[in-house]
Specification:
Elements lengths: L19 E9 L3 H11 L3 E3 L9 E4 L5 E4 L8 E5 L1 H7 L6 H10 L3 E11 L6 H9 L10 E5 L3 E3 L15 E5 L7 E7 H5 L9 E8 H8 L2 E2 L15 E2 L10
Antiparallel strand pairs: 1-5, 1-6, 2-3, 3-4, 4-5, 6-11, 7-8, 7-9, 9-10, 10-11, 12-13
Pfam family, one: Rep_trans
Keywords: Initiation factor, Protein biosynthesis
InterPro entries: REP-like_C (IPR003491)
Amino acid sequence: MNEIIDPWRVSVSEDLKKPFVDWLAFSIEYSDKSWSWLKTVFGELHIEEKGTTTGHTHQFRTTGDVFGAFSPQRRSQKIYVSLSSKALFNFRSSPCSLTKLIEDAIELKGKFTRIDLALDDYQGILDLPHIYEKLKRKEVASRFRGYSKFESPFDLVETGSLFRDHKIGKHGYTVYVGSFRKSNCFVRIYDKKLQVGPSCAWPVWNRLEFQLNHDAADQYCNPTWNVDPETGEVLNSNEKFPDPRRAKFEDR
């Protein structure tokens, strides 16, 4: 854990070393067009009249583990769609790319509420105890105001609250930077090998994740601003236009 593994000792494909999206959630307009798109992209929707934590009255799941929620009597609430780590893994076999999925969601007046950007470390470069000590000594340059260390089973060190992270579960060693509940950008660094358990084939497997929520997630997937592209006028309204200064999701 505390030493960097020599590259010759770990054979990892280049694809596994690339950054990837590990969670995606968004809402789209409640319309026939949206329902048709959902069925085309995800297949059969198994609908259940059951309340959700999002406040919707109905929910659905797909065979690929995509979760959704909606309220037939409150269509202004939109259709909520969430792709977990498992759902995104299953989605890789789909003919629709993640970039196309996001572009289509934008066309359906999509609002992105969460995206997790992850990078795996198989060489021990992310030394969790060392990173935590650096944070504790304030030997960092950061806009974040807080940090914490989490070791299962639910012993949270040097912080004022106890919480459960659904992505970590009961097993793991995790360093958090930012506020888990309040930050629009939140960082977790954790021991993925410890989370997976004995079935893990890698001698070292750490993961770095940036969890973007609400406006941060929406601006990452669909960068916009309040400038009318025709007139250049700065609008004092909720109307947004594509921001030509910033990269779209496909270019990031």
